[in-house]
Amino acid sequence: MTITITAFERSPDGGKGLARDTRVRWALEEAGLPYRVRLVSFRAMKEPAHLALHPFGQIPTYEEGDLALFETGSIVLHIAERHAGLLPDDANARARAITWMFAALNTVEPPILELTTARLLEGDKPWYEERLPLVEDRVRNRLDQLSGRLGDADWLDGAFSAGDLMMVSVLLRLRSSGILDEYPNLAAYVARGEVRPAYKRAFDAQLAVYTGKPPTG
Predict the structure, then answer these.
(1) Is 189 exposed, middle or buried (0-12, 13-18, 19+ CB in 10 A)?
(2) Which candidate, 112, 29, 21, 31, places its Cα nearest to that of 72?
């Protein structure tokens, strides 16, 4: 059965790989699975056909036969559980990798998204200058903890897993802020994710949507 995912018709991140379909593309590439992409406009995302797939009118969605999924964590976990390459065979290591997926989305990403929102949408507010350092401190608190746990290891728990895929994807959102550079081991960790061939293919495919040019790889 052909896998179909949805993505922005016009990527709002300018092709930087931050749109959440990149995470799903990366997982599919790591698993070596062919897939097709249906591009949707912002208007189409709020229409009944798309809302039937994603009740909150967002992307990406995942369709395979009569299965339809939304939420990147759910989609990546579904892929990882059914195809080799993203979860360890050992049951305990597998459970830990899944735990890191949840940590990326539920613990590390929220303050990063709060920072993104503050910088993009709140710069004209009278309280912005006072609030921004507080938001940045919340991000640094999480990075302090994550950096300490990672140490000098290549990946979070042994070999690369879906937990690393999600964590790298989340940390990439910090690149423009400069905060990631304050943590050399985390910056190196993200760089290791970016040089994986599967990530490069996913990034190029998402970039092609923005540029209108086919991937070169």
Answers:
(1) buried
(2) 21
> What range does the domain containing 77 cover?
3-85+198-207
Torsion of CA 34, 211, 70, 164, to 10 degrees: 70
Does position 69 have pLDDT exceeding 90, yes or no?
yes
CATH number at residue 181: 1.20.1050.10
- Which phi and psi (to 5°) does residue 157 adopt? -155, 80
The length of the chain in residues reads 217
Whole-structure pTM value? 0.93
Beta-ladder partners of 5: 37, 62
pLDDT tens-place string over residues 143-201: 999 999 999 999 999 999 999 999 999 999 998 889 999 999 999 999 999 999 999 99
